[in-house]
Amino acid sequence: MFSHIMVGANDIQQSKTFYDAILGAMGYEPGVLDEKGRCFYFTKSGIFALSKPINGESACHGNGSTIGFSAESTEIADAWHAAGVANGGTTCEEPPAIREGAIGQLYLAYLRDPSGNKVCAVHRVS
């Protein structure tokens, strides 16, 4: 359904360090910088990217927005969360845990990246 997701970042290198760590915990390669200073993570299922806002204003997070990354296990979700906290992210919402929802049990781990974007590792338990 999606070709790519791009989030704004005020400090591309700081955000790259954060995303290299959390996505590396999931087995992805480090991001690649282009000639415009944007950072891209290329996968078989799509692209995740970081960019300073084109309008020159400060990047800010979307209130109510969350980007979820699929985790193959609870252990990978925990490693993702620990890597994020160790690399400039902050825990938000509840600590990583199983939550009941309309689509069954999900193991969720939430973070805010260095620019305030809310991201989540999601493992479908059932």
Automatic annotation (TrEMBL):
It comes from Photobacterium profundum (strain SS9). PANTHER family: BLL2941 PROTEIN (PTHR35006:SF1), GLYOXALASE FAMILY PROTEIN (AFU_ORTHOLOGUE AFUA_5G14830) (PTHR35006). This is VOC domain-containing protein. Pfam families: Glyoxalase (PF00903). InterPro entries: Glyas_Bleomycin-R_OHBP_Dase, Glyas_Fos-R_dOase_dom, VOC_core. It comes from the Bacteria. Residues 1-124 form the VOC domain.
